[in-house]
Every structure is written in C-alpha cells, then in structure tokens.
Design brief:
The structure is a homodimer of 191-residue chains. The first copy, chain A, is mainly alpha-helical and 191 residues long. Helix content of chain A is 69%, strand content 0%. Chain A binds a DNA duplex (30 and 30 nucleotides) through helix 1, helix 2 and helix 3.
Chain lengths: 191, 191
DNA sequence: AAGACATACGGAACACGGTTCCGCTTTTCA
DNA sequence: TGAAAAGCGGAACCGTGTTCCGTATGTCTT
C-alpha cells in the first residue's frame, strides 16, 4: 500500500533542490540586512534566480519565513520542557522560556510585526508559530498555576500574542520590550 | 514683533477651507470603514476632490490622522489630572487612565499599528500622540510611585509604547488586549 | 464691474512592490 | 539519444502612494 504508487512519480529535479537551498540562504541574508519584508526581487537577485522561482518554492512570504526560522522555533519549543525540569520553580521556567522567545523575536527585524499582520498571506506564519509554541507555553502556564504561583486560567494564545506585540519595534532606542515583558510576567504572579 | 508681518499675506480661500473640512469628514468615515490605512484615492473620492488636494492639505497620512483624532486625544490628555483628583489612589487613577487610552486605541482600526510604524511619514503621528500623552502618563506614574504603590522609575514613554503595542490586533477574536494591559498594570504594583 | 494675480484644484503620470503567466531551457527517463 | 516532464526567468500587470503642472477659481484692486 505504501511506496510504489502507480510507478514512482519522478523525483524532484536536482536544480530545483539547489535553487531552494540558494533561496533559503539568500532569504536569511536579506532578512538580516533588511528585515523580513525584504523585497521579493532583492531575495531573488541574491539567490541568482528569477522571481517566479521564489513563488514556485514558497508561494507566500510566510512560507519562506517559516522555512528560514524553522530550526530556531523548534529549538525554542524543545527548550520548554527542559526548563521546566531544570528550573527552581515553574514560574521561573515560564519566565526563562518567555525571555527565550523574546530573544528570538527581537533579533528578527520585522518578524513581530509580520506575526501580527492580518494579511492572509501571513496566516501560515501565524499558524506555524502558534501551533508549535502555544502548547509549550500552555504547559508552562499550567505547571505554574497548579503550583499556585500565578493566576489561574491564563490563556496561552493570548499571552503569546501579547508577548509578540510587545516585541514590535524592539530595536527602537527609546523602547524596552524586555522591560515590558517583565511587567507582564510579574503581573501573572499571585500576590 | 508679533502680528502685522509684512502686510497680511492674504487669507485662505473659501473653497480651500471647504475642502479641508470635507476631507476631514471623508477621512473619518473612511477610517471607520476601512481603518486608518484607507487608500488615498478612496478618501479623495469620498470628499469629491482630487488626490492632489489631500496632499496639499495633509502632506502625510499622519497629519490627516492627527487632525481627525485631535479632539479625542485632547480629551484623553485632559482626563489625566481629573482622574488623579477623583480616584481613591494614584494607582487606581493610572489604571483608569490607561484603560481610557486603550479604549481609544482599540476602536480605531489600525491606529495602534500605525503608531508603531517606523515609516518616516508617521513621525508626526508618533510625535503628537507622545508629546501630548506621555507627560500625562508621567504625572500619573510619578504620583503612584511617590505614594509607594508601584515600582519607581518606570519610564512613561516605554509604558505608552508597550500599551500601544498591546492594542495591536485588538479586534482579533482570539486576543484580548485589555487582559494583557491589565497584567502590565498589575505588574507595576509593588508587592 | 472688470482685470490681474495668487491660490488651489484635478487627475494624469510616475515610482515601487507584489503577483501572475507563458515561452524557453534543463533534467530525467526510457 | 530523443521525447516529455519539470522547472526557470523575467516581462507584464495590478494596486498604492506621490509628484507635477496646465487649468480653474476666488480675491483684491482700481
């Protein structure tokens, strides 16, 4: 039943795979240089391909962003349970994990903004980040509230949205996203 | 030195003033219908003028936004001292005032996003909102910290930035800006 | 009342970025 | 080695913001 599906539908072409890798590298570089909203033409030029090739491999910008940052998001997700084990208290683990997430976001110029965009093209981005990270956050929240350290029934999705929002414009000199996130974490505590 | 500057430079034309008012009304309507990023051509059409006329009266979108919302921003600014007088404690006044600001922001589709944009054209918007509201916020913060209710040295500008950020996307069904703002307010409290 | 002149107007034209589409090239497979 | 499939490039198109200039309108003077 698995495998020989009506005669192996011909594997992906070698040049195609090469282009996809070139595109990922080019996009990563462009994102660092000009943020995640770098013009499509720029990314194509960096990779030495035509714009059509970008759309063939990554139909929406969100797909490209997800592909570029997948590893880092995975790492963040996996850090959750580890922190829970290694930290003194669940609240400490939650705080550490959130700071990890914030560190990731603030170093990606424009990512937080993109996460927030209601542009349909970013639906994928939204879905991926949230599907992957919200459960981790929920687990940490649950542990902390069970331990009686924080308010009960905090919704992980809302919290992640909010944290993401606070990271917008984090590179402005007269703003301090980490400070604001710290206030939120403090606000979660039962007093 | 003041007044008669080289012989009265001819007053503004009547049609010009008429257009300006029509533009303000059209913009207000367009903002309600499609958010503060309503296409320039739409606003012009609603007002029954050409696009050039918009740019002549309001060189940047920020100027238009400021003009449309000036009254409401003023009201919010003036409410600060009043709340300080009428509330039980400075922290309560601060909380009420922030909620007032949040109410204003979340009812203006896209305003919070615009406030955050680093597009130079929004510099005016940024400047106006912040110049008008930050001092009020600072006064409230100062009263509350003097009363020993909240952490000392909280920067009003950072707080306003953060609150504004939290209001981005407030109309999404699975987000709750007010809840997040509440956490920040709670986080300010000394425990 | 009429002429002269500044003021303001409209909207065509341009700039820019995303997205689509199709003729051509490259790779794969037999 | 020669189809046929897969993939490619980039011209062309669309929607927005922005500029510019020939024309129209209001205002002031005589």
């Amino acid at each position: 039943m698995t495998g020989t599906e009506s005669g192996a539908p011909r594997k992906q072409r070698a040049d195609s795979r090469r282009n996809e890798r070139a595109l990922l590298e080019a996009a990563a570089a462009a994102f660092v240089a000009s943020g995640v909203n770098a013009p499509v033409r720029d990314i194509a030029a960096r990779a030495g391909v035509g714009v059509g090739t970008i759309y063939r491999h990554f139909p929406t910008r969100a797909d490209l962003i997800v592909a570029v940052y997948r590893h880092q998001v995975e790492a963040c997700a996996e850090a959750g349970p580890v922190l829970l084990t290694e930290s003194a208290t669940p609240h400490a683990a939650l705080a550490s994990w959130i700071h990890l997430f914030v560190d990731f976001l603030v170093t990606k110029h424009g990512l937080a903004e993109a996460m927030r965009s209601d542009d349909g093209a970013f639906q994928t981005l939204h879905a991926y980040f949230l599907d992957r990270l919200v459960p981790v956050c929920a687990e940490l929240l649950d542990a902390a509230s069970t331990a009686g350290e924080i308010i009960p029934d905090m919704d992980a999705l809302v919290l992640m949205h909010g944290i993401g929002n606070l990271c917008i414009g984090a590179d402005s000199p007269d703003y301090d996203a980490r400070l604001m996130v710290g206030l939120v974490i403090a606000g979660l505590r039962l007093r």
